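Notes from the 1:1 (GR / supervisor)

We went over the backlog. Supervisor wanted to see one worked example end to end before approving the batch request, so GR pasted a single chain during the call. The sequence is below; no edits were made to it. Supervisor asked that the structure be written out right there so they could see what the output format looks like.
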Amino acid sequence: MNKPDLSGFSVTDLIDKEKGTLYSLIFYSCGLVFGSFLYFLVNSTSATKAMKELFLGAKGDFLRLFFSNFSLYFSVFMVCILLGLCIVGFSVIYGVSLFSGLFLGLKIAYFYVNFAFKGFAYSILMIIPEGAALMTVLIYTIDISIKLSSMIYKSASGKEQGSAKEIKSLLTKYLVYALAVTLIALINSTLTIMLKEIIILN
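Structure output shown during the call:
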C-alpha cells in the first residue's frame, strides 16, 4: 500500500490557510465560557425572568417558534453581511463569533441551573446541535465577509481592485448561506414541536 505523500505538508501553512476558521472558533469558545460565567454573575430574579422570556417565550405554535428562531438567526447573519460591506468590517467581525458563543453559553447555563438534568438533556438534544449548525454557517459567512471587506478596503485605498466576477461569486454564496440559515430555523422549530412532549420544560 502506498503511503500518502506528506512532503509538501506544513502545519504552519494549514493554520495560515484556515486562520479565519480558527479565529472564529477561538472567539466562539471564549464567548461560550464567558457566557456561562456571566449567567452566574448576573443571576437574579429580574435577570432570570428576562432570560425565561427570551429562551422560553416563543414556545407555542410552529409559526411563532419559527419566526422567533428565524429572526434571531437571520439578524446575526445580516450583521455578518453588513460588516462584509463595511470598509473596516474585517477588523471587528470576529465579535459576531464572540457574541454567538456568549449567547449560547448563557442559554445552556440558564437551562442547566433552572431545570437540572432535564435542562442538561435539553441542551444536548436541542441547543448544542442548533448552535453548532448555525455557527458552521456563520464561520463560512464570516470568511466571505472578511474577503469582501478586505477587497473594499484595498479598493478604497487604491491598492487593488476586486474583479466583478469574484464579487458576484461572494454575493452568490451569501444567498446560499441565507437559505442554510432559514433551513436551520425550520429544522430546529420542527424538531422542537415534534419533541415538545419530551423536552417541554415547566
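Supervisor's comment: The first helix runs from residue 11 to 17.
Batch request approved.
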